[in-house]
Amino acid sequence: IRCSFYDWDDTSVPLVNNQIGRSAEPKAKSRKPDSASVLTRGTDKYFVPVLARALSVLECFDVPNTSLTLEEITSRSGVAHTTAYRILHTLVIRGYLSQQNGKLYKLNRSPKKVKAGFANLTRRTSFARAIEDSVRQAAGAAGLQLFVLDNDRDAQLAIDNAKAMIASRVDVAIEFQRYEQVAPVIVDMYSSAGIPLISTINPQHGTIYCGVDNYRAGWAAGQVLAEHAIARWKGEVDLLFLLDCQSAGPTVQVRMTGVGRSIESRLGPRPADTVVRLDSIEGAADTQGESCRITERVLQEHSKAKRILIATVDDEVALGARDAILKMNLQKNTAIMGQGGSPEIWAEIADPDSPCIGTVSFCSELYGPGLIDLVLSLVRGESVAPAHYIPYEVFDKHNIGTKNLAAVGIER
């Protein structure tokens, strides 16, 4: 939310009939005060023009159950149109006013803060924690109350957390969970309770989505892998291994679809026996360990492969694949691309000897502002698009130097 009382250009407030900014009778247009009826910081050093204008707006609602348009408020208060809009916007966010049909404003006799709920995927990974930190900071900056729960990568717990969110009467809920089979259950619960639901990172049908374009993120990863194959192996690849996440459903699996199509666009169609696509984390409590075991098994089955490209659904899976590659001493024959942009993967990319050649960073710091902006739009009753894409950024061994690794505790 980019909303500040301190960038308004009008620094004086009219005094009419001993009331700040309030005329005795409403008129079609506010009267322009004479110079003797204007208070400024210059005439009274203790006077706060910002607060005075906000009070002038609130005083327009002196009659119980009054509903007013922006134009009526500017006419009654004498506050400039742009300034009045910003005041009203802030008062709606803080719960002092409600907005009806996007046009009429009404005083709330029992003001309350907007309450948003955020159910995080897990607190076990640095990427998910970074998303949560970003949401907390943005909610605090906007003056929202935030109710946070941890789904802990558990389908039943995600349902239980949705019940808790509904019981706590959140105004809008944000869901970060990966299980496609429970998504319709959660969506129906919120819909029945009349609570708007936003999904993030992993799109869920029936929600408003805010996150990365998964297909394009996969395509970007495929371009890096193809460039590596062209530079190192003249475009020849013995094995393309795609480590996917079946439980997340097709809306997340399009990342690996994007990778495959992207590589084909550069290297041509891949023979079916040189492409392996497997679920990397189904039912695994230890995602990194499970992806390591799966990678090791696949490479043993394709022991003749000497030019290997690996694309993974996230960075944690990429690190598991790396563990298997190091264990089998295949780091000079392999290139791994992750997704997400976790601090752990930065260190690998910065290491010239690591098989991890890059990641598609989802820019976690942008999620809080993006999600909270969307929450506020829904609270105000505004029409919103079904998908709001957060930018991504590709990092590889060529541009990792532009990343501030010290900020995430990595020494080079």
Write the layout of secondary structure elements.
Elements: E1 13-16, E2 19-20, E3 38-39, H1 49-58, E4 67-68, H2 70-77, H3 81-93, E5 97-100, E6 104-107, E7 115-120, H4 126-142, E8 145-150, H5 155-167, E9 172-175, H6 183-193, E10 197-200, E11 208-211, H7 214-233, E12 239-244, H8 250-267, E13 275-279, H9 287-301, E14 308-312, H10 315-327, E15 334-340, H11 343-350, E16 356-361, H12 367-379, E17 387-389, E18 393-396
Helix pairs in contact: 2-3, 4-12, 5-6, 7-8, 9-10
Describe the structure concisely for a colleague:
With 412 residues, the chain is of the alpha/beta class. The chain has helices spanning 49-58, 70-77, 81-93, 126-142, 155-167, 183-193, 214-233, 250-267, 287-301, 315-327, 343-350, 367-379, and strands spanning 13-16, 19-20, 38-39, 67-68, 97-100, 104-107, 115-120, 145-150, 172-175, 197-200, 208-211, 239-244, 275-279, 308-312, 334-340, 356-361, 387-389, 393-396.
Q: What is the chains' assembly state?
A: single chain
User: What is the succession of H and E elements?
Assistant: EEEHEHHEEEHEHEHEEHEHEHEHEHEHEE
The structure class reads: alpha/beta
| Helical percentage | 25-40%
The helix count comes to 12
Biggest β-sheet: strands ordered side by side in the sheet? 8-7-9-10-11-17
Q: Which whole number gives the mean pLDDT? A: 86
Number of strands: 18
Give the overall shape.
elongated
| Terminal residue distance | 36 Å
Largest sheet: 6 strands, parallel
Q: How many whole angstroms does the radius of gyration measure? A: 27 Å
